[in-house]
Automatic annotation (TrEMBL):
Keywords: Membrane, Transmembrane, Transmembrane helix. GO terms for cellular component: plasma membrane. Pfam families: YccF. The keyword Transmembrane helix applies. Residues 4-54, 66-115 form the Inner membrane component domain. It comes from Butyrivibrio fibrisolvens. The lineage of its organism: Bacteria, Bacillati, Bacillota, Clostridia, Lachnospirales. This is Uncharacterized membrane protein YccF, DUF307 family. NCBIfam families: PRK11770.1-2.
């Protein structure tokens, strides 16, 4: 069921979300200082491609908080708003609600990605 959900997910906007994460990662990797931020963007793009069966675990510290504040000012708001908007559109129908909930999960991680770890959930 996860496989089918992830295939439909890519069609319903997951690819657009992943492209947003990749674009942010490329822009951050232009500078040497921004490479750790860009690598985090690439890592979190994996949840944008197949979110079903994955959860976000927060493991932040002081360094993560400082990077999250920098991230929020530079890229986080745009990605979070875009994912939340797509989630709202998908929640307009009953069939789209599970997909909208996944976009809200990604919007939450788009605000504060540092200290967040993607883990696979085993049922």
């Amino acid at each position: 069921m996860r496989f089918l959900g992830n295939i439909i997910w890519i069609i319903c906007g997951g690819l657009v979300s992943a492209i947003g994460w990749w674009a942010a990662g490329v822009l951050w990797c232009i500078t040497i200082v921004g490479i750790p931020v860009g690598l985090q963007c690439f890592k979190l793009s994996s949840i944008s491609l197949n979110p079903f069966g994955k959860e976000i675990v927060d493991e932040g510290g002081v360094f993560s908080l400082l990077l999250n504040i920098l991230w929020l000012c530079a890229s986080g708001i745009e990605l979070a708003v875009a994912n939340a908007f797509i989630g709202l559109i998908l929640c307009a129908t009953i069939i789209g609600i599970p997909f909208g909930k996944q976009f809200f999960k990604i919007a939450r991680v788009a605000l504060f990605p540092f200290g967040a770890r993607v883990v696979r959930v085993h049922y």
